[in-house]
Structure formats: C-alpha cells, structure tokens
Amino acid sequence: MRITDARVVISAPGRNYVTVIIETEDGVVGVGDATLNGRELSVASYLADHLCPLLVGRDARRIEDIWQYFYKGAYWRRGPVTMTAIAAIDIALWDIKGKAAGMPVYQLLGGAARDGVMVYSHASGESLDELGADFQTHLDLGYKAIRAQAAIPGLEKTYGIAPGGGTVYEPASGNVPQEDSWETTAYLDVAPMMLAYVREQFGYGVHLLHDVHHRLSPIEAGRLGAAVEAYRPFWIEDPTPAEDQSAFRLIRSHTTTPLAVGEVFNSIWDCQQLITERLIDYIRTSVSHAGGITHLRRIFSLADLYGVRSGSHGAGDLSPIAMAAALHVDLSIPNFGIQEYMGHRDPVGEVFRTSYSFSDGYMHPGDAPGLGVEFDEHAAGAFPYDPKYLPINRRLDGSVHDW
Ligand code: GCO
Ligand code: MG
C-alpha cells in the first residue's frame, strides 16, 4: 500500500489547526493533527519541507518503521515541533490502517477495555459566583468531572478564564502575544477558597480538578496541595514548570493531593523519572504532541507498570482529529484515568466531521473505520490562518514568569 501523496493544510475554523493528509495508491486516505498552538507554521514547514516528501513511495502499513525512520533517522530527536510532526503522520497512518481493515482504530489497539471514556470539562469565572454558575451548566450537561478556575482579585487578566455566556477561553488574534499578570501570593490565597466554594456549593459527588499552569515553586506547590486536601481534588495539574522532574519529589513529600503533569511533554524521556519514581499520579501527554498513537501507547505502558494513569491533554487547540485519536487510545488501554474535553468552537464542524459521541459524562470514539473523522479540505479553504499566540505571563514587577 504505497503512499502517493502527503500534504499539509492550515485552516482556522474557530481556531488554527494544522492537518496532514496522506493518500495511498488504493485510494485510502488518512488524516493527522499537527497543531502546535502558537507555533503552527513551524510544524507545517517541518512536515511540508522535510517529512512529507520522504513519505511518498513508502508502504503506509509499516507504521512502526516510518516512526523510527523519522525519529532516529533525523539525528535531531525530540522537541515539540519534531514530535508533533511525527505524531501527525503516525495518527494518519493509524487512520489508514483502520480504514483498510474496516475497523475503528481502538479495535486494532486491542479492543475496548471499558464502555466509555470519562472526560472532564472546564468551568471558570471572574468571580466565585460566576464560576458557580458555569460549574452548574457543566453539571447539567452531564459531566462527572469538572476543572475549576477563577480570576485572581487584583490581577487584570488571568489565563483560561472564559468571558462568560457559555463561551470558551480563547487567546486574542494578532502577531504579538497579549500579556497577562501574575502574583503568586494572591493566587495561593484564592485557590483553596475557590475549591472550598465548589465543594460547599456542589458537594463531593463530582470530580473536581484544578490547573496551576506551571506557576508555583516546588515548596509553594507543596503548600497548595496540603491546603486543598480536604476538598479532595481529583488532581492538581502542572503545579511547577514541568521540565524539572525532581521538583516533584519535594511536592510529594508535603501532600497526598494527586498530581498531574505532561501536556508540554513530547517524549517518554520527558516523564521517565516522574513515572518510574512514582512522583505523579496522572500523565497528561497528548497523542498529537507526544509522537502519535505509537509513542503515546509506549508512555502509557511504562506508566501502567508504576500505577500512573493517563489523563491526556484535550484542549480546544488540539483538532478534532487529535480528540478522536485520543479516545481510541483511552478506550483500549488498561490504565486510563481521565480525558480532557474542552470541545471545539463553531464553525469547526464545517471542516471536521466526527463520529465520537458524549453521553452522561463519558465519550466514545464511535465505530467508523479508522479514526472516524472526515476532514473537508475544500471547506477548510474558507478559513485562512489567523495568527494567535498564547499570552505571556509577567509578575507585577514586570519580570516574565513561568507558564
Ligand atoms: C489545559 C491547558 C491549556 C493549554 C493550551 C496550550 O489544561 O487545557 O493548560 O489551556 O494552556 O492547550 O496550548
Ligand atoms: Mg493544563
């Protein structure tokens, strides 16, 4: 099954997505997600200039060989741009394999190990009351797990707080990133109050999550974890900058609050110590940023040996193709924990037609052959690239702070 064409499409139906399309001699076509938020054009160029030309003529069925060819063959290993590009090709090849076999990808991965995939959504507010209203909206939608974020009084803008009215958070368009402000002391006061508020209002029958976005020092994170234990968070996410794996030893020694990390990781090497030393409870690597289905399964297999569960990143800046691929992996692995599901903004459905479904807090990838996502290349043409950056985070004294 020779590959006859591989190309990249950048479109912005709601937000920017980079999509790889791989065609084979017998007409089976696969799609993969190559979106790297704020760095979209780098991955598109890596693919179009370096990887796609090398795919033509190769046997699309040899997924592992193609993965190794691009990973080991390039000499330069790892890194978000490289690994997102390899991931997109890997995802598209699994799509092709499923379509050729007439099976959904999860069947090729060993079949369903559960009936559905528990997902968590995002609730946020400028005030606790606004957060409460948004939390209730998500409960009414059936979610069993909800992430809570609230603005910090005294700070002009806080990352991830949606403007309200059912909308999701979205960075502003433009060629220069917006700048947010940050003050750790204020945050450390507010965060426990916020989780306490959610428990007082809604009780303990829902899983409660919170994202720190890498903003604390290890000892501050230990203090936060200890302060919120009574509110039984499902997890505290990204408490400290994720590349410092040994920092988690210090956090662990101060709290039993479960820890999740990994949305910025792109290989098994980034989380090897975190997993093998049992420094985290959930590994959040995503299928599109951590080398595709092939490499993500390797990470989750290592995690399974050490009692660490999956909790993949699933923000709206990962395309519906990544969401579908994640659901196929989630459904089939033994150590699934939870899946993030932020949903996608209109008009994403005009370009990506999905067969996954949500019911009562759980998702299922559907039973269409392959990933179950159709990408309408023609429709994508109506939504040109819209430059957008994640905000920069500065302390009140003007210094750049961690993300
Ligand atoms: C999350 C994330 C996102 C990321 C974004 C980066 O947990 O969903 O932290 O908000 O910041 O996906 O591209
Ligand atoms: Mg996060």
TrEMBL record:
The keyword Lyase applies. Pfam families: MR_MLE_C, MR_MLE_N. Its EC number is 4.2.1.8. SMART domains: MR_MLE. Residues 128-258 form the Mandelate racemase/muconate lactonizing enzyme C-terminal domain. Keywords: Lyase. GO terms for molecular function: mannonate dehydratase activity. It is an enzyme of class 4 (lyase). InterPro entries: D-mannonate_dehydratase-like (IPR034589), DgoD-like (IPR034593), Enolase-like_C_sf (IPR036849), Enolase-like_N (IPR029017), Enolase_C-like (IPR029065), Mandel_Rmase/mucon_lact_enz_CS (IPR018110), Mandelate_racemase_C (IPR013342), Mandelate_racemase_N_dom (IPR013341). Gene3D superfamilies: Enolase-like C-terminal domain (3.20.20.120), Enolase-like, N-terminal domain (3.30.390.10). This is D-mannonate dehydratase ManD. It comes from Luethyella okanaganae. The gene is manD.
